[in-house]
């Protein structure tokens, strides 16, 4: 598609400056009514003429009609005055005059035909200006609508057709009439299609316009315009565009109607909006008062403004240009133009000037003949009623707007969306969802997807705060899918969709519980959108760093957004970043309080301040947290959460006096606050952790939680989890010797699980309750697998070291020691747990079990290392010292049980030292006042180590030393052999690598050589091609230019048989040669001037003469065995140099009838070749002899064939007339050159053919060539072709 449609005629036939003396040519003007004179003289009966001023006509044409009737004025006067009225836009008067004139001219059908046709056109004009629907308050039967005038036009057209159906103006009028009727047809209900009835009407209109074009022989440009309009309505925009261009090229001064308007509309529909703009601008250059060009350009800039951000200066510039420069001008030119009215109504709707919206929208609906504009009018009215709150009228108008564009499966998406919005306002969410889902199915409407996703999200949010929770996972999935689809569409630049912060905020809320990382990303994207909205004037001028600038302008963002981002950072453990955002949120609140004093931000300040204090606590900045809480309490002294945190901090700082007093005071002042009760319950648990009574009913913490559940809130989740933990600890300490004890213990675990299960029913995401159930499963049921699954899920929620410790316990019980070690080490990596003695002990025990299972000394060493590290952390803990001694004893036992080849004396010595340390530690632990295990057991272990293991290690050490001394040489040899093997393997690996490198280098060099050879071959072939082309060129004798050599024309050639007959007549003795007719003479063709300059003619003696001169190059023609060589297409012609062959032959002739002589000559040639050092293989000689023998056999077969002289002569090669003339004077063998059969040494003897003289003359083939393989003169056509290479130039 061309970038512009305006041809050279658009600026006049010679361009824009085709005026006189280079001045600009005047713009073309409209020619409508240009032939109406200013005055007209009406002849009267008394030869008197009355002048009528057509510019000042009476308001009532009755008097003029009476005059014309009395004077029997001809048609021209009736029509001239009527058109003068029409020129003044008094269409009704013009129609009245034409109707009366038609009545007067009843007797003259020819003149009446023109008047009726003109009346039809005026009715069509009235139809364009009439309202589409009856005005409000008027009767439909009395309203003069478009349909009314179209009926009158149809009647007039039918009257004219009855007079003369072939009248040329009727074709154009019929096409326009059908076109206007089609515009009133309702749109198609099927998506993307034209209504079948309307399409049929448009095709009929198209036929009428084509008939008008035909009868005018293509000169009726208005008919071509009508055809283009019909094609446009059918959606055939390229064809319509071509028709409009055709009008413009043939009639560039046509401005009313202007084809440039149609060109621009076609461009717009085809997607070339800039080209459409150029066409409309050119229209304005020619006619600045074109209302259509103005409004269309206004729509262009209005559309352009929709593709830029609304807060950008470019948007303001484009929108202002669209409305004030173009739309307003179009409205001033014609206040009833439907498109202008609809556009201005949209502008007033955005300004909330609903009175103007109502008036302009009704105008657009009444006067348009385009369904889309009527739909826009109804939609604007619906939006107005929507704003006013009249939902019923708004719904009706939305329905009409939808129906005007097809409704149902097609329709107008904004109108459908408006109906869905009304359903939401009516709280009919089910209806709204159905409509929105149907819209999304029809077309991927992103506004509908946003609204539907928001409705599903609101259902999820409402369920979160409901007392009775329902499963809304399906709704959440739908909401996320819809909103994420919209989010993905933002990234497509072709869709040009602006990101919506509301979508991201809803997604963040949906992701909050399941995927907090995704929720945080959504909030960060909202933050970026808000930063992009900040004007450059608000940016700090003295900050150059981008990060610092971002921090500085963060206070300009909404504090709610900053607070939410800070909360997500806090949950993720990034407390420093969380503190920054909370502080920025407080700065934003301070800014808002200064600029927008009417807003109440106290709630925001309170919440953000508390969050900031908690973030300070996480960072370990206790002083900052205390200061923040105290500042918060100075504004709200009754803020219990802040007081609770202060009491907790005080308890951690002063656990003996001030802390407990602060907690007790807080509890006394707020006994009903659940948060305070939770803190007090935790405090009671800490105080009584070391002195818990055997009976759980007497535990203060248990009584406190029970009191909370009974008297304050039976669904308090903290109290439920606390009760479960207490029962769990109680069950863990119960005895388990008898079955009754085990049953009692199992019942306690079941009671704990009941509390945890109740908490999970109230809060399915309560990880602490799930963890309690998992512990109960492990300790009571030994159900490690199910417990493992629970702990894995808990690990995803709680970032607590104890979760990993519990996971380590389960993996250890499942004997998955590697995973257990990983879990314990992860717990140690958590903040504050790097030197936790309990975790270190668990890690040491796991390594010990791993060493036992695998008999791995390294694992034992790791167990001893972690046990010693735990002891170093808490040296006063006797059980940790026992752990070290126990590992040392186990290590000694393991080494004693190992074979001599598996241990060393050094390891045994270390184990002996560790055993002595263990014995001493056990004695000290047993002597302590409160040993962790029974004293008797400790002493027994120490005695066994002292009396038994010590002696075992001594004997093992002596045996190990004897083994090592005995096998020292073997060990050294084995070590040396191993080292030699390693060296050998290393050397072998090095050699293989070196060989591989050499192989790769060789391959690389070969590839380079092949590439170089290929380049040389390419260059050589190119050089040969240039030489061949140069050889085909010659110098033109007239111009001196180099031209391609032309072959000699065969027009003057005579038949071969005639030439041979004349040749024989010129030869003495009946044309026989001196050899008795046995030798074949060769006739040379006359060489061309371009090839034989300086070349002498060969001698005419029988010896061939001229043996010292070079003969011309020969061509070798090869033919397949089974193909006759008489066809040129069956032969391959290759060049062959005969210079060396001529030297070998020495000018000797060959007598075909004397084989012995021929063989002697062949032997002489072979001898000469061998003496001169020419390589000639014996195989080649044998092949040559075989070739001679076969040649003699062919001649023997040819002699008795009885061929006549004429037949032999017919087998001769053609010769030119000129050469025959030159040689005609000779006698005997002097006239013909006898040729010897020479054989060129060939590498491949399978090639066969004949040798031809190289000449530029055109060669003629004769079917009777005797030497041609497969064509023996004896008539034996079935004989196989000769495989030898023989001369084919011998004449019999």
UniProtKB/TrEMBL annotation:
Residues 1134-1157, 1205-1219, 1254-1263 have a biased composition (Acidic residues). PROSITE patterns: TPR. Residues 11-22 have a biased composition (Low complexity). Residues 1-10 have a biased composition (Polar residues). SUPFAM superfamilies: TPR-like (SSF48452). One of its GO terms (molecular function) is RNA polymerase II complex binding. Residues 1-36, 1025-1292 are annotated as: Disordered. GO terms for biological process: regulation of DNA-templated transcription; transcription elongation by RNA polymerase II. Keywords: Coiled coil, Repeat, TPR repeat. TPR repeats lie at residues 606-639, 801-834, 844-877. Transmembrane segments: none annotated. Residues 422-449, 965-1023 form a coiled coil. SMART domains: TPR. Pfam families: TPR_16 (PF13432), TPR_8 (PF13181). Residues 1055-1069, 1120-1129, 1158-1167 have a biased composition (Basic and acidic residues). Residues 1108-1119, 1190-1200 have a biased composition (Basic residues). This is TPR-like protein. It comes from Parathielavia hyrcaniae.
């Amino acid at each position: 598609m061309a970038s512009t449609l305006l041809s050279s005629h658009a600026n006049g036939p010679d361009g824009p400056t085709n005026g006189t003396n280079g001045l600009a040519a005047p713009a073309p003007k409209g020619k409508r009514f240009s032939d109406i004179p200013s005055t007209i003289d009406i002849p009267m009966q008394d030869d008197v003429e009355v002048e009528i001023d057509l510019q000042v006509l009476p308001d009532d044409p009755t008097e003029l009609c009476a005059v014309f009737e009395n004077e029997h004025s001809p048609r021209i006067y009736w029509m001239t005055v009527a058109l003068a009225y029409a020129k003044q836009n008094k269409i009704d008067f013009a129609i009245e005059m034409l109707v009366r004139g038609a009545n007067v001219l009843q007797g003259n059908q020819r003149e009446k035909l023109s008047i009726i046709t003109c009346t039809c056109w005026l009715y069509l004009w009235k139809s364009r200006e009439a309202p589409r629907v009856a005005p409000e308050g008027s009767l439909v039967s009395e309203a003069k609508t478009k349909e009314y005038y179209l009926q009158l036009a149809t009647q007039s057209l039918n009257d004219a057709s009855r007079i003369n159906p072939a009248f040329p103006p009727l074709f154009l009028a019929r096409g326009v009439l059908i076109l206007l009727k089609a515009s009133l047809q309702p749109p198609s209900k099927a998506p993307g299609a034209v209504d079948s009835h309307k399409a049929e009407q448009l095709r009929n209109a198209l036929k009428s316009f084509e008939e008008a074009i035909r009868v005018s022989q293509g000169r009726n440009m208005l008919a071509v315009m009508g055809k283009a309009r019909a094609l446009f309505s059918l959606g055939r925009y390229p064809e319509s565009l071509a028709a409009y261009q055709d009008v413009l090229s043939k009639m560039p001064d046509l401005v009313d109607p202007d084809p440039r308007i149609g060109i621009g509309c076609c461009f717009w529909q085809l997607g070339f909006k800039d080209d459409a703009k150029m066409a409309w601008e050119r229209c304005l250059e020619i006619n600045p008062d074109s209302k259509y060009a103005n409004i269309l350009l206004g729509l262009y800039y209005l559309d352009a403004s929709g593709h830029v951000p609304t807060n950008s200066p470019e948007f303001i510039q484009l929108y202002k240009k669209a409305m004030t420069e173009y739309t307003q001008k179009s409205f001033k030119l014609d206040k009833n133009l439907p498109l202008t009215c609809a556009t201005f109504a949209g502008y007033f709707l955005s300004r909330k000037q609903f009175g103007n919206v109502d008036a302009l929208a009704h105008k657009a609906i009444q006067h348009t003949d385009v369904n889309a504009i009527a739909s826009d009018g109804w939609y604007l009215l619906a939006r107005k009623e929507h704003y006013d709150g009249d939902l019923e009228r708004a719904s009706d108008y939305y329905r009409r707007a939808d129906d005007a564009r097809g409704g149902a499966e097609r329709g107008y998406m904004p109108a459908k969306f408006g109906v869905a919005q009304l359903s939401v306002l009516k709280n009919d969410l089910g209806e709204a969802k159905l409509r929105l889902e149907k819209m999304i199915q029809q077309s991927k409407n992103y506004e509908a997807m946003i609204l539907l996703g928001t409705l599903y999200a609101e259902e999820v949010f409402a369920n979160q705060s409901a007392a009775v929770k329902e499963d809304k996972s399906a709704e959440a999935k739908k909401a996320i899918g819809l909103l994420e689809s919209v989010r993905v569409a933002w990234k497509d630049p072709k869709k040009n969709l602006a990101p919506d912060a509301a979508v991201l905020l809803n997604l963040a809320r949906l992701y909050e519980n399941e995927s907090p990382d995704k929720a945080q990303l959504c909030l960060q994207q909202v933050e970026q959108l808000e930063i992009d909205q900040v004007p450059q004037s608000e940016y700090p001028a003295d900050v150059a760093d981008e990060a610092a600038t971002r921090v500085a302008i963060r206070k300009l963002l909404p504090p709610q957004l900053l607070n939410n981002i800070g909360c997500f950072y806090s949950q993720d453990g990034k407390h420093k970043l969380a503190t920054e955002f909370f502080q920025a949120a407080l700065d934003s609140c301070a800014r808002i309080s200064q600029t927008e004093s009417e807003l109440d931000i106290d709630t925001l300040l309170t919440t953000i301040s508390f969050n900031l204090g908690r973030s300070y606590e996480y960072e370990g900045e206790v002083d900052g947290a205390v200061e923040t809480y105290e500042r918060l309490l100075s504004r709200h002294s009754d803020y219990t959460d802040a007081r609770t945190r202060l009491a907790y901090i005080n308890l951690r700082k002063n656990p003996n006096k001030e802390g407990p007093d602060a907690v007790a005071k807080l509890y006394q002042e707020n006994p009903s606050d659940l948060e305070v009760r939770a803190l007090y319950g935790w405090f009671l648990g800490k105080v009584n952790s070391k002195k818990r009574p055997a009976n759980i009913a007497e535990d203060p913490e248990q009584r406190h939680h029970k009191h909370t559940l009974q008297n304050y809130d039976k669904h308090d989740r903290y109290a439920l989890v606390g009760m479960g933990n207490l029962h769990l600890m109680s069950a863990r300490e119960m005895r388990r010797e008898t079955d009754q004890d085990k049953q009692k213990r199992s019942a306690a675990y079941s009671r704990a699980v009941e509390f945890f299960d109740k908490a999970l029913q109230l809060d399915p995401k309560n990880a602490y309750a799930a963890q309690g159930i998992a512990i109960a499963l492990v300790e009571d049921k030994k159900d490690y697998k199910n417990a493992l699954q629970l702990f894995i899920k808990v690990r995803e929620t709680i970032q607590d070291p104890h979760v990993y410790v519990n996971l380590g316990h389960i993996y250890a019980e499942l004997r998955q020691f590697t995973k257990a070690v990983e879990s314990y080490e992860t717990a140690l990596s958590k903040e504050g747990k790097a030197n936790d003695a309990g975790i270190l002990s668990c890690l040491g025990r796991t390594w010990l079990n791993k060493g036992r299972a695998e008999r791995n000394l390294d694992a034992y060493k790791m167990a001893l290392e972690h046990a010693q590290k735990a002891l170093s952390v808490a040296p006063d803990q006797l059980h940790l010292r026992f752990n070290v001694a126990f590992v040392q004893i186990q290590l000694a036992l393991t080494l004693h049980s190992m074979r001599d080849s598996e241990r060393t004396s050094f390891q045994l010595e270390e184990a002996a030292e560790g055993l002595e340390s263990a014995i001493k530690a056990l004695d000290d632990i047993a002597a302590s006042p409160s040993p962790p295990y029974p004293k008797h057991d400790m002493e027994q272990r120490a005695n066994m180590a002292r009396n038994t293991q010590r002696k075992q290690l001594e004997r093992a050490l002596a045996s190990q030393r004897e083994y090592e001394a005995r096998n020292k040489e073997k060990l050294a040899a084995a070590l040396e052999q191993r080292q030699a093997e390693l060296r050998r393997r290393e050397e072998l690996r090095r050699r293989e690598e070196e060989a591989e490198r050499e192989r790769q280098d060789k391959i690389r060099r070969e590839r380079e050589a092949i590439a170089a050879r290929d380049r040389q071959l390419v260059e050589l072939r190119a050089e040969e091609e240039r030489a061949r082309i140069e050889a085909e060129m010659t110098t033109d004798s007239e111009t001196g230019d180099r031209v391609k050599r032309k072959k000699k024309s065969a027009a003057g050639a005579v038949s071969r048989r005639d030439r041979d007959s004349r040749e024989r007549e010129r030869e003495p003795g009946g044309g026989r040669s001196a050899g008795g007719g046995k030798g074949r003479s060769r006739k040379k063709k006359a060489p061309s001037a371009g090839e034989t300059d300086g070349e002498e003619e060969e001698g005419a003696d029988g010896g061939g003469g001229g043996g010292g001169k070079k003969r011309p190059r020969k061509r070798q023609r090869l033919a397949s065995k089974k193909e006759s060589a008489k066809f040129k297409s069956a032969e391959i012609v290759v060049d062959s140099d005969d210079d060396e062959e001529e030297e070998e032959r020495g000018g000797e002739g060959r007598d075909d009838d004397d084989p012995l002589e021929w063989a002697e000559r062949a032997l002489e040639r072979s001898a000469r070749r061998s003496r001169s050092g020419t390589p000639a293989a014996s195989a080649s000689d044998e092949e040559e002899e075989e070739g001679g023998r076969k040649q003699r056999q062919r001649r023997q077969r040819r002699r008795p064939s009885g061929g006549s002289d004429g037949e032999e002569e017919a087998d001769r090669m053609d010769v030119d007339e000129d050469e025959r003339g030159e040689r005609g004077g000779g006698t005997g063998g002097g006239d013909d050159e006898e040729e010897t059969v020479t054989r060129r040494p060939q590498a491949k003897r399978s090639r066969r053919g004949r040798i031809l003289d190289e000449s530029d003359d055109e060669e003629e083939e004769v079917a009777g060539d005797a030497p041609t393989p497969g064509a023996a003169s004896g008539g034996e056509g079935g004989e196989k072709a000769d495989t030898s290479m023989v001369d084919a130039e011998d004449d019999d």
